[in-house]
């Protein structure tokens, strides 16, 4: 990822600070990043107990529902091959639009991703995570950065630690994007100005590794959050489930389907669609006996692109565009201010641990002139200060 003027500008130390904990094992491994040997053993250190910093509050670790999330599985290959009257594509677009407007998640098959390539990527990631921690730490993610190796317990966190390790890469995309083509086809030509919105974008590929956990019901692999990026493509490895979405007050599983890619809307797309499409609130749970892996591709615009919805979605209350035949109930007053991806990335890496309310907290932070997190969090919309826990979830 190229140098971002916002990145690495904070005063946060590169090293974990001593923290107060009542769990000896956790203290032992958390006090210093140089205690690699001890950290390496963390996941298996105590056969029956997780260290206290990994224990999540009951509200976040709320029990999961058995009911699978009601989300469409769209065969995009078949829809695109449908040379007839376009009915297949229209139907697929309707299903996707409905899912995006409700919880923000759908799955795609027939996408053309070579299964052998997907397997190789998952196996490559698995090989990395099997390396000794000291070796993995050579690729350590620097504070404020989005790329590199990260494990909360070797970084600066002190509470609500996710039970996982991650390895992230930047991916610069020089091509015109299928996402814009799709939304142009669904939402009409007013999305055309987005034509190059994602070109030159600096997206992120993240490998997630969730070790088996002795107390899975007391922790989370990834806490409840919305991805700040625009759109996420997720490949779940094998048949180990873990991804869950909050729908109708319940955490519902999104079980892996062979060959399917999960697609979810992120905060940037929610802002781009003026709230029409919901940023998906999701989390990942872990298992007692089984480890789990997933690969997430976070589609992001170029750092300096201004995130602003197309005019079609932005009619002020009471007005409507002349070129729109029927009254479009999707026209809403502007919900979020202009921002750049660099600003949102900076906010989630330095000031705020991505959660269900990132976008509102971010809007409030921008409104306050984005001076410091303390200023942002003193306002009602950002009432829970997370300044000490940034870079936790995304
Ligand atoms: O591993 C998963 O299923 C979800 C991961 C996730 O939400 C993320 O990496 O942002
Ligand atoms: Fe996520």
TrEMBL record:
Name the domain of life.
Eukaryota
Q: Where is this region: Disordered?
A: 314-335
Q: Which GO terms describe its molecular function?
A: metal ion binding; oxidoreductase activity
| Obligatory cofactor(s) | L-ascorbate
Q: InterPro entries given for it?
A: DIOX_N, IPNS-like_FE2OG_OXY, IPNS-like_sf, Iron_ascorbate_oxido_reductase, Oxoglu/Fe-dep_dioxygenase_dom
- Spell out the coiled coil positions from the record: none
Keywords noted in UniProt: Iron, Metal-binding, Oxidoreductase
Q: Which residues form the Fe2OG dioxygenase domain?
A: 198-301
Q: Which PROSITE patterns match?
A: FE2OG_OXY
Q: Which family does it belong to?
A: Belongs to the iron/ascorbate-dependent oxidoreductase family.
Q: What is this protein called?
A: Fe2OG dioxygenase domain-containing protein
Q: Which organism is it from?
A: Digitaria exilis
């Amino acid at each position: 990822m190229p140098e971002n003027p916002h990145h690495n500008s904070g005063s946060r130390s590169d090293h974990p600070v001593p923290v107060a904990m009542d769990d000896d094992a956790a203290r032992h491994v958390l006090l210093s990043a140089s205690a690699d040997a001890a950290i390496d053993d963390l996941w298996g250190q105590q056969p029956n107990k997780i260290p206290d910093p990994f224990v999540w509050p009951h509200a976040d670790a709320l029990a999961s529902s058995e009911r699978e999330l009601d989300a469409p599985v769209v065969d995009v290959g078949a829809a695109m091959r449908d040379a007839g009257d376009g009915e297949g594509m229209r139907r697929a677009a309707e299903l996707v639009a409905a899912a995006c407007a409700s919880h923000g998640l759908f799955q795609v098959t027939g996408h053309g991703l070579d299964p052998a390539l997907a397997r190789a990527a998952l196996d490559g990631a698995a090989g990395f995570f099997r390396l000794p921690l000291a070796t993995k730490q050579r690729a350590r993610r620097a504070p404020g950065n989005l790329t590199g190796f990260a494990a909360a317990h070797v970084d600066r966190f002190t509470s609500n630690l996710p039970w996982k390790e991650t390895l992230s890469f930047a991916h610069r995309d020089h091509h015109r994007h299928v996402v814009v083509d799709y939304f142009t086809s669904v939402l009409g030509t007013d999305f055309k100005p987005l034509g190059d919105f994602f070109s030159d974008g600096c997206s992120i590929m993240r490998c997630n590794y969730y070790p088996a956990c002795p107390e899975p019901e007391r922790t989370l692999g990834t806490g409840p959050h919305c991805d700040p990026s625009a759109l996420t493509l997720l490949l779940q490895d094998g048949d180990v489930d873990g991804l869950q979405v909050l729908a109708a007050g319940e955490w519902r599983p999104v079980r892996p389907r062979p060959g399917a890619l999960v697609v979810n809307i992120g905060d940037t797309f929610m802002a781009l669609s003026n709230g029409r499409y919901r940023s998906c609130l999701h989390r990942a749970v872990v298992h007692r006996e089984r480890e789990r892996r997933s690969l997430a591709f976070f589609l992001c615009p170029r750092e300096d692109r201004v995130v602003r919805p197309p005019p079609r979605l932005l009619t002020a209350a009471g007005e409507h565009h002349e070129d729109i035949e029927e009254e479009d109930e999707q026209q809403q007053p502007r919900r979020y201010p202009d921002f750049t991806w660099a600003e949102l990335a900076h906010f989630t890496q330095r000031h705020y641990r991505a959660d269900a309310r990132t976008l509102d907290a971010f809007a409030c932070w921008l409104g306050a002139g984005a001076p410091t997190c303390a200023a942002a969090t003193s306002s009602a919309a950002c009432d829970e200060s997370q300044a000490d826990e940034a870079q936790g979830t995304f």
